[in-house]
């Protein structure tokens, strides 16, 4: 083909020119003929087209991308390797895409099948922002685990965030674990995984706690999601139970003598203990109880042996009867009582009540006597004060006592440990109100033996002058 320029060709065909046969031929050969020529006649066109993908290579790329639908991609490296394999097997074709500055590579960490994804969609999912899925946990029942061998059901729920790419990892399995305390060894629980799509439930119903009895140490749970060849532990801070610990039964005691027993000359000590025992821990049945006493010295002795009680508890009266204490507290000033109880968590028994205490105090005597000396005076013939001497240095418990004279001598006594001076109780106004002359009193000390065997030194006083009949009230300073 001739390579004459257009200017040369134009010069042969100017006005008045007579072109030759050769010039006509050069003109015809200078243009393409659709019947005789192809693209190779265009200089450089063949090399340009050789740099582009052929239809066959493009079709091959589409076919191989479609084949990814059945592949299980387990991590980012495998995904990128699969794409590179497609590119390498597609001849000289190439595909380039830049990730926007506001995006990072998505969270493709475990397998999913890619379904009907085009080449462009594949890259879009890789470059999409990653939003972590959420996991919640429910532990039931929520009642306190204050019983032995309680079984808890633990369920962790995995939920995929809306809008997260389909290539996000989804669980293929799970393992729930628990431990006692915050640093103990994690123990595996038998775990069942259910659900599909955007949610998974991992459940375990074999978390048996307190196999050795009550234990107040916290219990924690966590789940290990299995994501193909990788794992993900949730939560970063383990879920800790809000369960309460074992709660012992409660006993409330009442004493027939109230809070004070006045020591008696002629009547032995006797006290009736009543009250109730109430279970506090669900599913921890009571079995037996007993009552103990001591004299404020932690030397507890049984008043009654263990006897049965209803599982939920009840009154002493309806569970064996109230208990009567007739032991004589010789020389003691305090007696205490408590309840020991057995239940399924404490089969050997444990103290479950606050101590109910009783003060045993010595009385103040007042009355009339025919005796004219301390040695002849019998305190048993006198009245026993309704208020008692309790031993404190400021105690003046004979205030307000009333006695009636019957032509006998006025007499009284209190423990010598308190005072051996009349003025301790009787000030000048008292003597004047009672028309008593201090010099007419006979005083002295002698021992008094009480019915419980206690011996106490008393300070006695007798008004040596016979008092005429009348009613008198003692008021002290």
pLDDT below 50 for ≥5 consecutive residues: which ranges?
69-74, 89-115
Decide which structural class fits the backbone.
mainly beta
Instruction: Give the overall form.
Output: rod-shaped
Domain count, please report it. 5
Mean pLDDT: 75
How big is the Rg?
53 Å
Distance between the termini: 151 Å
List the helices and strands and how they pair.
Blueprint: H1 6-12, H2 21-29, H3 45-50, H4 55-67, E1 72-73, H5 76-88, E2 112-113, H6 119-127, E3 134-140, E4 150-159, E5 173-180, E6 187-188, E7 192-194, E8 199-209, E9 219-227, E10 230-240, E11 250-255, E12 260-262, E13 271-278, E14 286-294, E15 301-302, E16 307-308, E17 313-315, E18 323-325, E19 334-343, E20 350-351, E21 356-369, E22 383-389, E23 401-405, E24 409-415, H7 428-433, E25 441-449, E26 455-466, E27 470-474
Parallel strand pairs: 12-21
Antiparallel strand pairs: 1-2, 3-4, 4-8, 5-6, 5-9, 7-8, 9-10, 11-13, 13-17, 13-18, 14-15, 14-16, 14-19, 19-20, 19-21, 21-22, 21-24, 23-27, 24-26, 25-26
């Amino acid at each position: 083909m001739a390579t004459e320029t257009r200017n040369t060709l134009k010069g042969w065909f100017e006005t008045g020119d007579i072109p030759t046969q050769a010039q006509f031929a050069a003109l015809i050969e200078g243009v393409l003929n659709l019947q005789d020529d192809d693209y190779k006649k265009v200089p450089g066109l063949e090399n340009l087209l050789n740099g582009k993908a052929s239809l066959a290579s493009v079709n091959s790329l589409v076919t191989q991308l479609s084949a990814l639908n059945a592949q299980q991609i387990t991590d980012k490296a495998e995904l990128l390797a699969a794409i590179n394999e497609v590119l390498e097997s597609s001849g000289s074709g190439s595909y380039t895409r830049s990730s926007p500055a506001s995006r990072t590579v998505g969270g493709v960490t475990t397998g999913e099948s890619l379904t009907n994804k085009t080449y462009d969609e594949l890259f879009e999912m890789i470059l999409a922002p990653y939003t972590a899925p959420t996991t919640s946990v429910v532990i039931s029942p929520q009642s306190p685990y204050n019983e032995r061998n309680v079984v808890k059901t633990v369920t962790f729920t995995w939920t995929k965030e809306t809008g997260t790419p389909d290539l996000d990892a989804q669980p293929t399995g799970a393992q729930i674990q628990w431990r006692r305390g915050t640093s103990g060894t994690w123990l595996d629980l038998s775990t069942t995984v259910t659900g599909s799509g955007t949610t998974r439930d991992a459940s375990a119903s074999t978390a048996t706690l307190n196999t050795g009895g009550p234990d107040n140490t916290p219990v924690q749970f966590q789940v290990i999601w299995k994501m193909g060849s990788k794992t993900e532990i949730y939560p970063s801070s383990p879920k800790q139970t809000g369960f309460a610990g074992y709660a012992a039964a409660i006993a409330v005691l009442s004493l027939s003598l109230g809070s004070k027993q006045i020591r008696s000359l002629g009547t032995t000590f006797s006290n009736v203990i009543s009250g109730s025992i109430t279970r506090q821990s669900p599913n921890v049945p009571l079995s037996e109880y007993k009552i103990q006493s001591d004299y404020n010295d932690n030397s507890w002795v049984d008043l009654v042996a263990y006897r049965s009680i209803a599982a939920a508890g009840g009154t002493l009266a309806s569970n064996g009867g109230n208990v009567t204490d007739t032991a004589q507290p010789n020389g003691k000033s305090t007696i205490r009582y408590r309840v020991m109880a057995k239940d399924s968590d404490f089969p050997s028994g444990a103290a479950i009540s606050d101590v109910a205490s009783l003060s045993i105090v010595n009385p103040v005597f007042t009355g009339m006597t025919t005796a004219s000396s301390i040695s002849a005076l019998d305190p048993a013939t006198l009245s026993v004060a309704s208020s008692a001497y309790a031993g404190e240095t400021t105690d003046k418990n004979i205030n307000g006592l009333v006695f009636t004279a019957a032509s006998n001598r006025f007499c009284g006594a209190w423990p010598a440990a308190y005072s051996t001076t009349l003025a301790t109780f009787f000030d000048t106004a008292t003597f004047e109100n009672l028309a008593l002359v201090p010099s007419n009193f006979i005083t002295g000390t002698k021992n008094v033996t009480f019915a419980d065997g206690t011996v106490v030194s008393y300070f006695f006083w007798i008004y040596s002058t016979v008092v005429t009949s009348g009613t008198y009230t003692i008021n002290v300073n």
